[in-house]
Amino acid sequence: MHSPYLMLSVTMVLWGSAFASSKSVVEYLPHEVAALLRFGGAALALLAALYFLGDRRGAARAPRGAGRRAALAGVLGVFAYNSAFFWGLSLAPSLDAGILIPVMSPVLTSLFLLVTKRERASWARLAGLVLGLTGAVIFFLGAGGSAQGSPSRLAGDALFLLSAGCWAAYTLAGPRVLAGVDPLRATTYATCAGAVLLGFVAAPAVPDVRWSELPSGVWLNVAFLALGAAAVANLLYYRGVGAVGPASASLMMFTVPVVNTLCGTLFLGESFGPVQAAGAVVLLCGAVLAATQGRLPWRRTAAPAAPAAAPAGQPARR
C-alpha cells in the first residue's frame, strides 16, 4: 500500500467504524477501561510489529530526543484524546462523536494556523471558519434542546469537542514527531506512552468489571478497536501525514462522518434530531470551505517532507 491517500482512506474507514464499535464496548465497560483495552491492546500489537518488522538500526539512527517527542505526542493524541472520547461516548451517541471530532479537527487546525500566521487568512477560509463555528453552535443547541437531546448528551458533545482539539494538536505535531523516525517506531512510542497513562486512570475501575459475564461481541469489538482502529489505523495515518502533511491528511477526515453515520444508524439505531442534522450540514460545509479554501489539495503535487529542524505545523509540510 504505497499511495498515501489510499492509506489515509483505509484509515478513515477504520476510524469511521470505530465510533459505533467503541460505543458498543462502553455500554458494557467503564469508559476508562474501554479506552485502556483499546490502546493497551494496540500497544502490544505495535510492540510485536516493531520487534518483527521494525528496522533494528532505526533507534540508533533516530535524531536525539525523537523517542521523547513521540511519547509526548502519545500523551496528547492517545491519552488525552481517548480519555475525553470514551468519557463522551458514555454520555452521548456515537453519531455525535463521528460529526464533531473529524469535522471540527480540521476547523481547529485551520484556526490555529491562522492565529499563528502560518497560513494566510483568505476570505474563503474566514468564511468557512465562521460557517463551521456557526454549525457547531447549532449542533450543540440541538443536543441540549431537542426532543432527543439531554444535558448528558450536551456534556458528551463538549467532551467530543475537547477530543477534536487534542487531535488537531496531535496532527500539527506529526511532522516534528516523524522527522527522521520510522513511522512504525514513532507510532509505537506514542501508543505505548498513552496506554501507560490510560492504565493508571483505569486501574481503580478494573476490579469492578465482571469479566466472565461480558458477551463475546464485546471482545470482538475490543479486538477490532485495538488491532484495526488503533494499531493499523494510527500507523497508516502517521505514514500518510509524513507523505502529504497534516493539513491534507486532516482533510481526509471528512469521510469519517459518512462511515460513522452508516454504522451508527445500521448497528446501533442512533439518529439525529432535525436541529442537530441542520447543524451538522452547516458545520461540514464550513469545515470543508475553511480547510480547502475552495481548492482540492490532493490535486496538487504533494510537497516533500520538511527537514528535521522544521517546526511542527510549518506551512511547507502542510
UniProtKB/TrEMBL annotation:
Entry keyword set: Membrane, Transmembrane, Transmembrane helix
InterPro entries: AA-Vitamin_Transporters, EamA_dom, EmrE-like
Ranges annotated as spanning the membrane: 36-54, 66-89, 95-114, 126-147, 159-179, 186-206, 218-237, 249-269, 275-292
Intracellular or extracellular location(s): Membrane
Main localization (coarse): membrane
A Pfam family assignment: EamA
Membrane topology designation: Multi-pass membrane protein
EamA domain span: 5-140, 155-290
Ranges in coiled-coil conformation: none
Family statement drawn from the similarity comment of this UniProt entry: Belongs to the EamA transporter family.
PANTHER family the record matches: EAMA DOMAIN-CONTAINING PROTEIN (PTHR32322:SF2), INNER MEMBRANE TRANSPORTER (PTHR32322)
The name this protein goes by in its record: EamA domain-containing protein
